[in-house]
Amino acid sequence: MKIICIGRNYSEHAKELGNAIPDKPVIFMKPDTAVLKGNDFYIPEFSNDIHYELEVVVKISKGGKYIQKETAHKHYEEIGLGIDFTARDLQSDLKSKGLPWELAKGFDGSAVVGNFFKKENYNLESLNFSLLKNKDKVQDGNSKDMIFSIDDIIAFVSQYFTLRVGDLIFTGTPEGVGKVSENDILEAYLEDEKVLDIRVL
């Protein structure tokens, strides 16, 4: 199972981190060992600045290569929410040296994945999702603000990587990312339904 992630897919998030708005999807990956087991996230010892990034996650249900945008919708049946935990201090250091981000993005437990839901129950062109930290709303996103749609992403990614059943695509985070601290509680909502409840330790 591959975890393919899209960076800078919401213009306001790109701006808040001082990044240029991309003209094609920015891709990075996490290993399968990044998936968090359970609901407790432990801050790793190598970072003092772990950030949450809430994202819509797509689960591939039909594999393929060179998938066309017009048929991309046939390759997934379920969507959910996930959190891309990022060691921002480590990422900034790596970026300043022109090095890859994987150490800051792919560490154990850095990919929170909730339950998946049938996509036909939602309007994917205007999907609301939000994140609360200690009951305060910190991220409030809508899929209509994506620079690249889910179908755009699947078509682009499949030019380079063969997609297989069970692969996950994290589709990018809206503005409002921030640091987590010990004892924080993160709650994620898909429309009005709570789908994630994470404790930071």
Automatic annotation (TrEMBL):
Protein name: 2-hydroxyhepta-2,4-diene-1,7-dioate isomerase
Gene3D superfamilies: Fumarylacetoacetase-like, C-terminal domain
Database matches in InterPro entries: Fumarylacetoacetase-like_C (IPR011234), Fumarylacetoacetase_C_sf (IPR036663)
Keywords for this protein: Isomerase, Metal-binding
Organism, as annotated: Chryseobacterium formosense
Pfam families xrefs: FAA_hydrolase (PF01557)
Domain Fumarylacetoacetase-like C-terminal: 2-190
Entry keyword annotation includes Flavoprotein: no
GO MF term list: acetylpyruvate hydrolase activity; isomerase activity; metal ion binding
Lineage of the species this protein comes from: Bacteria, Pseudomonadati, Bacteroidota, Flavobacteriia, Flavobacteriales
